[in-house]
What we know:
It is built from 4 helices and 5 strands; from the N terminus they run αβββαβαβα.
Amino acid sequence: MAMNVxxxxxxxxxxxxxxxxxxxxxxxxxxxxxxxxxxxxxxxxVKVDLPKATNEATVTKPENINLSIxxxxxxxxxxxxxxxxxxxxxxxxxxxxxxxxxxxxIRADKRTKYEYVGRVLILTQKSGILKVGFITEPNLRAxxxx
Length: 146
């Protein structure tokens, strides 16, 4: 290891030509410590086994019930408008006791508030319906883009 000693061939007032790397090493060590601490926090998440989605064609059976919700929140039972939500609840209770229980398919306008869809979903669930599905239009552009 070499050391610069003043008076050993160097002038007293001459500028130092060597780069002082001590501050660089200090900054790098601080950054390394920060990364060591934060990386485990960033990669830590709850292990959840997510369901796999399949794209299957809907089999329309005559006993299936189609609930449609328009953008204003009006509910339709198989294309017939319901006067209020209590009528929906009464019909769902009558359907829930059937054997086999029919499926309920919910269709909503894309401008419909989530509040309206959630309300119908909760009423369907509280009525004892076991199979509830959402009907959507297929996105044809997504398959063509790939």
